[in-house]
Amino acid sequence: MAPSSDVACPSSEVEIELFPFIRVYKNGKIERLFGTRTVPASLDATTGVASKDVTIDPATGLSVRLYLPPAAAGGSAKKLPVLVYFHGGGFMVESAASPTYHRYLNALAARAGAIAVSVEYRRVPEHPLPAAYDDSLAALAWAVDACAAGGGGSEPWLAAHGDASRVFLAGDSAGANIAHNVALRAAAEGAVIAGVMLLHPFFWDPSNSMSPELEVRIRREWRFMCARADAKLDDPRICPTSAGAVPLLAAMPCGRVMVAVAEDDFLVAKGRAYHAALLASGWRGEAELVDTPGQDHVFHLLRPGTEAAAEMLGRVADFISRA
Q: Tell me: the pLDDT tens digits for 262-288?
């Protein structure tokens, strides 16, 4: 007797769906719902920025995509600021090679006159947190060491042009969460960072509410990201504004932090709360809040040709070039 068409094949049954990111089937198949396209490293005709992919750790697959701006052309010995960038995507989707981030970092490297190091960290669910944090910290250490090595270093772009005293961290959404956590972990190891930029950061904050549906979604996502049913939202890695976590902000290892939020972003209150907590923590640096009206989550990546996106690119570039 033929099986009924109403009965799903066990191999095609969905075990977990976290829209809009990912779908996991009972047979172990993982379906990423966006952010799967990639583009090769290249010489960008529009900006003149050259890029290449470098493997840092073959054992884990950790790699980076480097971007060298025209400011380094012609054999110039001028040292340039270095931006270590962490892509967003809920720890689940997107990559350093995605068209979205390739386009953005070409534009940003050219505008800021900086070498960009875009980190290809391991993603959830194949590699639950803290894998992304561990990879990102390792990439930062690698970049700083490569800059400090000088002309004899194994990575020629960073060795010849990277300024180890002007290293910045930045990321959007989950990547901003990574940038925050990497900065604090780097501080514990005695590192000094020139500045940190958190663009539309993926954080939790208990003092401001969102719709019950969104609260349930973030709780589910965090448990999935950690691969732990008991993962709580008071974890300082996602809730840096909790009572126990705020004192840790005072250790931020830089003199300047930019927090960018968008008025219509469902995470806007969380980013504003982070900025306020940083100011209240005892940290002695300069905290800048960039609050864009009438825009939503990562608008500058999704609509790069708009006036608002151009303004955001300029703010980020200026933050770097002021160093």
A: 999 999 999 999 999 999 999 999 999
Please say whether the beta carbons of 182 and 137 come within 8 A.
Answer: yes
Query: Which structure tokens are listed for 317?
Result: 């570039």
Sign of the torsion angle spanned by Cα atoms 135, 141, 145, 146: positive
265 is catalytic: yes
Q: Check if 211 is active-site.
A: no
Among candidate residues 161, 200, 297, 300, the one labeled active-site is 297
Q: What percent of the chain has pLDDT over 70?
A: 94
DSSP code of residue 73: G
> Which member of 173, 180, 242, 275 is catalytic?
173
Residues 66-105, buried b or exposed e (16+ Cβ, 10 A)? bbbbebbeeeeeebbbbbbbbbbbbbbbbbbbbebbbbbb
173 part of the active site: yes
Q: Let me know: does 133 contact 188? Beta carbons within 8 Å.
A: no
